[in-house]
Amino acid sequence: MADEKKVLFSGMQATGNLTLGNYLGALKNWVSMNEDYECYYCVVDEHSITVRQNPAELRQRARALLTLYIAAGLDPEKNCIYYQSHVSGHAELAWILNCYTYMGELQRMTQFKDKSAKHADNINAGLFTYPVLMAADILLFQADVVPVGIDQMQHLELTRDIAQRFNGIYGDVFKIPEAYLGKVGAKIMSLQDPSKKMSKSDENPNASIYLMDDPDTIIRKFKRAVTDSGSEVRYSEDKPGVSNLIDIYRATTGKSVEEVEKEFDGKGYGDFKLAVGESVVDVLKPLQERVAELSKDKTYIDSIIKNNAERANYVATKTLRKVQKKVGFPERIR
Ligand code: ATP
Ligand code: LTN
Asked: Is the entire prediction scored with pTM above 0.90?
């Protein structure tokens, strides 16, 4: 990896089943950007335990997610793909940054408000400081760019504020990261309620396309997708259901809004929904096949996990030691 490349960092939680929203809003962009950056793709298992998890399931999901990163086209020889929990610098830096983040800032985070409403019986301190751990993830690697979906923009703004505050006190320690939003697909909406984002934690399985759904299920879910009054396939604010399906179709086929509208001119919603479903099957089928193939190669995946954790640890420790020195922790005696 050439030294002059800019750094890209991103991550996903190993909670629930990944959706088409995760793929089109994040993973797909990671793949399209990865040649131009020095990339770190993290499975953020430490973030996952802010919501109660079944340990065996979390372990299995974390591995499946790491495998999915590779299956999606991220080459683990060229990109650093690893588990957050294997690099202790994440938690260590998060602790330090907690002391440079205000309660008021964290109280404003909409994800915290949403998740505390959803998990009212377990509003733990980790859920509250979740964005600080995310800031630590990003700043530890001196990332220039962070590709995410729209829902993570507020966390990214906070990351920048924390970094600027820290730099203001101690000099230039952290690179100030920029968010990267894809042109299409940065916010895929629920198929059952187009005012809500498609989410892996939605209780209604028909609201989301899961990346591992089989073709029949995918087609069925699109057929059942909520559309709007009228019968025209047109992109507009008063047609949120149809517009969401157009966005999905654009993201899977690369077509423009005009091309899509023209293609379905004079045709009804039925034809359109079927075409969207088929385009999603075309994207997900090869991905699923590759996941199945890769999952069989335990030795290969294990070697990726080991080597990449070492590489990530090396880079993370460099930033961590610098920060520890700045805040006044005693030097290590060698
Ligand atoms: P949950 O719904 O359980 O909160 P999530 O689906 O938001 O989880 P994350 O692991 O938090 O999943 O997100 C991983 C990445 O996918 C993030 O970059 C996020 O912005 C993106 N993402 C999630 N949902 C969507 C969506 N509906 N449209 C576009 N991008 C999305
Ligand atoms: N908070 C993100 C996941 C996440 C992340 C990160 C994304 C954790 N650390 C660092 C980008 C960079 C989420 O919930 N989607």
From this structure: yes
